[in-house]
Specification:
heterodimer; A: alpha+beta; four-stranded antiparallel beta sheet; three-stranded mixed beta sheet; 3 helices; 9 strands; B: mainly beta; Maltoporin, Chain A; 2 domains; 22-stranded antiparallel β-barrel; five-stranded mixed beta sheet
């Protein structure tokens, strides 16, 4: 009995050692470029503040070539269709990469999306979408920062997403309901 | 002329031997790792016999002709050598003994505060022998203990079965002893692993689970007892030189310097002993360039030990050690935008620009005196006093933090054997800690730069009895601690322990225990007042002690002459764990967490049917949960890996030894701060080789041979591939 057990233990050791050795060949931390190679668009780091509302469906980043002048302009964001939500958890910070065509963008903004479906004509957009933060001008932090995308990526488009300070659409285009 | 005279003198003894028709046989006896053995060397077919000295050297006379020599020592395989000697010959033969097939059971001193066989301990104990220490070309005790079963170091902070997690060195939940004397810091409660020169370490005993019934505060998760070498008779010396290099980053985009970092050091130990008095002295230091930016370090240390043995029953031991470090402080690694990030999300080898220039000077020392007296076969007592001191200054761009702390301790302990089957250990202990500082001030306004002094007193009494009932061995005891903190709270903690050991004929030795552990908040946790990355950290003088109940069921079995196992199921319920909490924009240490740590500890030692090969396997499964409290739901306890696997193998052939360890630590389920940073499992392979030529021993180690890049705690790069070699000359 004891001999069988010891043979089994030795066999287990003989099996485990090569397996673990092979597992060890997996790589650890790797360089993580802010922007993927040959990527055209903008990249940066978003930092989360505040507590994520329970009704959160997601948070996504989009860019506007021209700062919206009316509610109708809100649909001129790029890329279209919009990218998927940033990855959960919405804590700490994370990098993002937003594919965009070359050009000038006046508003890079994070949009908070509440759980729920849009009504026809986006009539309920006010209740489902809120501005959660945007890239700010480096000299005037109260104003949106302008980003120019060339044939290669543009990095360091960093900004804060503040769940404690969400702004509904009507903040920009009153009146609020 | 002088050479001729010396040659003539040298031949005189040989001629004398030749005249008697005998030959001289001399040399050394060592174990498989090169450690000298006081073995008996006997000429089987003659009268020659000798006992090797403390350095393993022997010399004896043998008759001319065919000679059969037997070399033996308890616990080692005997060796028979046959050689032909001519009368007048002087022949050198070096012998190496392997461990006995059925090794002697180790004797331990930590689990019950007195000597006992390992199999008599009611809790799990891991041993790190001097052979284990010597195999690795390392410089500090923590590096040698790191691979012990169930033990894990997180950025220098020791965890036994997930006890401590990581709180930046504040408030270790493991008590460190040096020869039985508590050595945790007086202010921060952490452990200075570099206080004891590694060359002075004989073995390390790691007692797992709550040990407060005998040791009081900090022994909540376990006890690590570093036992220094006995001082041998006669004059001895040892010189050890260390050299090595750190691998460069594996990717060019991570390169941070244009040279290869190196490390180098030198230690010297001397000792002299007689039957009545002995003394030893060690001094040395090392320098390291570090493996990342702003990581250079200089370390100097000295240690001395003296023993006076006025009678065979009485021993007086005094010891002292002092270490000084000046090291650059690589704060958190650089993330995008906080340094020249080269378009990377993070640069693990570089630090944030705001942290450049930070460095620390840290001096620490310990003095201890112990008197042991065996009054009779039934009663022995021990008294000891100790003084530990730490003095650190963190030089930082935003302002310097400093603290000077003392910890004084006294203990009187008695060991009574009323009958042959009973042992009672009882004692009283007291300690006084103080700190003068500009960071642990207790000031509610962290912006002020006041300097304050705080102190803490602890008084305790304990007793534990052991009784043999047939095959059953029962243990029961308790300790009561009273804590008194200036400007803080009073607390009294009772820590009982019950245990049982049952040897069986076919199923090994079973053990079971239940005990309570606790940890008094450190002065740092109570009175810290500073900023961490711009966030104020405010004091909380009214912190309560952390407590825990530990349960264990274990079994140690010898499956065959080749395989030994030790397995334990453990369960710890911890209450009022002290954690830094962020509340209203400030950080404060609070008693918050009710945690549960349960799991399995398994260690297997196998000697496959290949002469000289030994393999080990240890595995710990840990289920560590922070239970729901207030509005926080249940979640994984931070900084506890679910799986911890260590594989080891060593092969010895003649004077050459090769070996290696592989450590796998599963990806941490949860960390505090920077929770979304990328993190990976730990997979570290260490390789080593050794060779012995007479008095010279060469050891080399390639730590993290795969140059696996990982972090144990957020934004802190773990050591990269490091080559280190030591060469030791022993007299």
């Amino acid at each position: 009995m004891a001999n069988r057990l010891s043979r089994a233990a030795l066999a287990a050791l003989g099996t485990i050692i090569p397996l673990v050795g092979a597992a060890a060949c997996n790589e650890g931390l790797q360089p993580t470029p802010l922007c993927p190679e040959r990527f055209v668009g903008i990249c940066g780091r978003v930092t989360f503040q505040g507590t994520e509302p329970d009704s959160t469906e997601g948070v996504l980043v989009v860019a506007y070539p021209r700062f919206p002048q009316s509610r109708n302009d809100l649909l001129t964001f790029q890329p279209f269709p919009p990218p998927p939500s940033l990855a959960r958890p919405f804590r700490g910070s994370q990098i993002y990469a937003l594919p965009l065509s070359t050009g000038r963008y006046e508003w890079v903004v994070a949009v908070w999306k509440k759980v729920g479906a849009f009504a026809p004509g986006f009539s309920n957009a006010d209740s489902l979408l809120k501005e959660a933060g945007f890239y700010r001008d480096q000299t005037d932090p109260t104003a949106p920062g302008v980003v120019v995308v060339h044939d290669s990526s543009t990095d360091s488009v960093n900004f804060v997403i503040d769940f404690g300070n969400l702004h509904p659409i009507c903040t920009y285009f009153p009146p609020c309901p | 002329m002088r050479a001729l005279l010396l040659a003539a003198l040298a031949t005189v003894p040989l001629r004398a031997v030749s005249a008697q028709g005998t030959a001289a046989l001399y040399g050394s006896v060592r174990d498989s790792s090169g450690q000298p053995l006081r073995a008996t060397v006997r000429v089987v077919n003659g009268d020659g016999v000798g006992v090797a000295d403390a350095q393993g050297r022997y010399r004896l006379s043998a008759p001319g002709g065919l000679v059969i020599v037997r070399v033996g020592l308890l616990g080692f395989q005997s060796l028979v050598d046959t050689l032909t000697l001519a009368a007048g010959d002087s022949v050198e033969r070096d012998y190496r003994l392997g461990p006995a097939v059925v090794p002697l059971e180790p004797v331990i001193v930590t689990a019950a505060k007195h000597s006992q066989l390992l199999s008599q301990a009611v809790t799990s104990v891991a041993l790190v022998s001097d052979t284990d220490v010597a195999r690795r070309a390392v410089t500090t005790v923590d590096e040698a203990v790191d691979k012990a079963p169930g033990v894990q170091f997180l950025n220098g902070q020791v965890n036994i079965r997930g006890s401590s997690g990581y709180v930046q060195g504040l408030g270790s939940r493991v008590l460190m002893l040096v020869d039985g004397v508590p050595a945790n810091q007086g202010d921060r409660g952490g452990i200075n692993w570099d206080l004891i020169p590694l060359e002075d370490v004989a073995r390390v005993e790691v007692v797992k689970g709550a040990g407060s019934a005998l040791y009081g505060s900090a022994a909540l998760g376990g006890v690590v007892n570093v036992i220094t070498r006995e001082i041998p008779s006669g004059f001895h010396a040892r010189v050890r030189a260390l050299g090595g290099a750190y691998a460069n980053p594996p990717f060019d985009v991570w390169r941070f310097r244009d040279y290869t970092g190196a490390l180098e050091g030198l230690d010297v130990t001397t000792s002299y002993g007689t039957a009545a008095a002995r003394g030893s002295y060690t001094a040395g230091g090392w320098h390291s360039d570090g493996y990342r930016e702003q990581d250079r370090r200089n370390h100097w240390q000295t240690a001395a030990k003296a023993q006076w043995i006025p009678t065979p029953e009485t021993r007086v031991t005094t010891s002292g050690s002092w270490a000084s470090d000046q090291y650059e402080t690589p704060l958190i690694w650089c993330t995008h935008g906080s340094c020249d990030d080269r378009g990377q999300d993070f640069q693990p080898f570089m630090i944030e620009a705001s942290g450049r220039g930070a460095f620390t000077r840290s001096d620490k020392g310990q003095l201890a005196a112990t008197v042991e007296h065996h009054a009779s076969e039934r009663f022995a007592w021990q008294a000891r006093g100790s003084w530990g001191r730490t003095d650190f200054t963190d030089f930082q761009p935003t302002g310097d933090d400093w603290g000077v702390a003392n910890r004084y301790g006294v203990e009187f302990r008695g060991e009574v054997h009323p009958t042959g089957d009973r042992v009672v250990t009882l004692g009283a202990e007291g300690s006084f800690s103080d700190v003068r500082t500009n960071i642990f001030t207790g000031d509610a306004n962290p912006t002020s730069n006041v300097v304050r002094t705080h102190d803490q007193r602890e008084f305790a009494a304990y007793a534990e009895g052991e009784r043999q009932l047939g095959r059953l061995r029962l243990v029961a005891g308790a300790r009561i601690d009273h804590l008194d903190v200036d400007g803080g709270s009073l607390a009294t903690v009772l820590s009982p322990r019950l245990g049982v050991v049952l040897p069986t004929a076919r199923a090994g030795v079973w053990r079971a225990s239940a005990g309570r552990g606790f940890r008094a908040p450190s002065l740092a946790e109570r009175f810290v007042s500073t900023f961490v990355q711009g966030i104020p950290v405010v004091p909380n003088p009214d912190l309560d002690p952390e407590t825990a109940w530990s349960f264990e069921l274990g079994n140690a079995a010898t499956l065959s002459s080749a395989v030994r196992t030790d397995a334990a199921l453990f369960w710890t319920e911890a209450y009022d764990l002290i954690e830094p909490t962020v509340d209203s924009g400030r950080i404060q240490f609070k008693n918050v967490t009710h945690a549960r740590l349960a799991g399995l500890d398994l260690a297997v030692t196998a000697t496959p049917p290949v002469a000289g090969l030994t393999t080990t396997l240890s595995y710990t499964f840990l289920h560590a949960r922070a239970l729901a409290h207030d509005s926080v739901s249940e979640r994984p306890l931070a900084f506890r890996p679910r799986h911890l696997l260590t594989l080891g193998a060593d092969y010895q052939r003649g004077v050459i030894g090769v070996g290696g360890d592989f450590r796998y630590t599963s990806r941490l389920d949860r960390v505090e701060i920077y929770e979304t940073d990328p993190r990976v499992a730990e997979k570290v392979l260490d390789l080593r080789v050794s060779a012995v030529w007479g008095a010279w021993t060469l050891r080399a180690q390639l730590a993290n041979a795969l140059n696996y890049i990982y972090s144990q705690v957020p934004r802190t790069l773990a050591p990269v591939r490091t080559f280190a070699a030591t060469i030791t000359w022993t007299y």
